[in-house]
Specification:
single chain, 172 residues, mainly alpha, 3 domains, 3 strands, DNA binding, Integrase_catalytic, DNA_brk_join_enz
Length: 172
């Protein structure tokens, strides 16, 4: 997956995501994400925000900076490198969880099995849990069908019953 940013001129930034099968989609870049991206870019010696028509990859290979090579021509972080970094973060979190809580072994074991694609599932579940319109979640994840996106719905049975009771009425 290669990520690039573009601005629509209305203080709205979009990620152009090149995913599986060469499919391309636009994903909204939130203000929170843009703040973190700005911090990352400044750490690399780049301007806080991309300039118009800049083609710098969103995430550069480890060790790349604006000072040691031209960031605009630098290839993005590879999928394998990203996977390795994410696995390392999950492993570190599992280690710290075990150190902090002896009873958390099974949760730590689960963290050690985590991989980069789990982040995608977490994002989809979080968007659905926050009641973002499922069509928007579908578009953000690049699914062709709402059926695929619906796996991210984790509706609590009590809430489902209550909302059905309140909103699906004949009102006699």
């Amino acid at each position: 997956m290669t990520l690039f940013l573009r601005s629509t001129g209305a203080l709205r930034w979009w990620l152009t995501v090149h995913g599986k099968g060469g499919k391309q989609r636009l994903v909204p870049a939130t203000r929170e994400m843009m703040m973190e991206l700005s911090r990352y870019r400044q750490h690399l010696g780049l301007s806080a925000l991309p300039s118009p028509n800049e083609n710098t990859a969103l995430v550069l290979p480890i060790g790349a900076t604006a000072s040691n090579e031209r960031a605009e021509t630098c290839a993005p972080l590879t999928r394998a490198a990203f996977h390795t970094i994410v696995k390392g973060v999950f492993a570190g979190a599992a280690t710290r969880l075990r150190q902090r809580d002896d009873a958390a072994g099974s949760r730590a074991d689960l963290l050690e099995k985590a991989y980069a694609h789990w982040l995608r599932h977490s994002a989809g579940s979080h968007m659905a849990d926050q009641k973002i319109d499922l069509r928007m979640v579908r578009d953000n994840l690049g699914h062709a069908s709402l059926t695929t996106t619906s796996i991210y719905l984790h509706v609590d049975d009590d809430r489902r019953h209550q909302e059905t009771e309140e909103k699906h009425r004949v009102d006699w």
